[in-house]
Amino acid sequence: MQTPEKNRSFTQLIEFEIEPHQQPALVSALSRQTERLAQCNSGFLNASIQASEDGRRVLNYLQWQSREAGEAAFQSFESGEQDFWQLIRAHRAKTVTFGSFQVLHSLERSHDDALHCTLVP
């Protein structure tokens, strides 16, 4: 028996390709924007911002309770006080790649050092 798609969590991945000198400022701007998204949008689960060691890429990972929650948050990101497209221009991103994924399997370590696996049928 399959879990309905709307009951699966939803992940958005946004990868930015930039010049290395732009990386710290982009990471800072994405951090502020991600905190606003988390505070102002229901359905937020977690997020991370990752920077490549060569300074040329930044990955913004956002996870939501549902596709609808993620899409609503992204719409607010596009029209926020510093909209998404302004953020891209301000940090001179060469390319921006978007990906959307349903979470089917996750593994995490708890505070008691045990591994917890979640499998969505």
From TrEMBL:
<feature type="domain" description="ABM">
    <location>
        <begin position="10"/>
        <end position="76"/>
    </location>
</feature>
<dbReference type="InterPro" id="IPR011008">
    <property type="entry name" value="Dimeric_a/b-barrel"/>
</dbReference>
<keyword id="KW-0503">Monooxygenase</keyword>
<keyword id="KW-0560">Oxidoreductase</keyword>
<dbReference type="InterPro" id="IPR007138">
    <property type="entry name" value="ABM_dom"/>
</dbReference>
<protein>
    <submittedName>
        <fullName>Antibiotic biosynthesis monooxygenase</fullName>
    </submittedName>
</protein>
<dbReference type="Pfam" id="PF03992">
    <property type="entry name" value="ABM"/>
</dbReference>
<dbReference type="GO" id="GO:0004497">
    <property type="term" value="F:monooxygenase activity"/>
</dbReference>
